[in-house]
Amino acid sequence: MNTKFAASVLSALLYAQGLLGFAGLATVLLRDRAHASEFVAASEMPSGPSVLVVR
To answer: Source organism's superkingdom (predicted)?
Structure first.
């Protein structure tokens, strides 16, 4: 009975580690995607003088 308990605890720990790894990977991928969209938005802005500044 003790070996079944140890096996279930080890299985639960491995499952939790897998979930944390997946969450970490998703965080990194989503963060990189957000930074990439910021660069795209910044490159679409005109580089000339603003209409609000020049009257």
So the answer is: Bacteria
Which residue is it, tokens 């080890």?
10
**Residue 52 gets which letter from DSSP?**
T
Q: Which two tokens stand for residue 38?
A: 């910021």
What's the full length of the chain, in residues? 55
**Residue 55, SS3?**
coil
Rounded to 5°, angle at Cα 34 from 41 and 22: 165
Q: Which two three-digit tokens encode residue 14?
A: 């491995």
Mean pLDDT of 26-39: 77
Record the pTM: 0.52
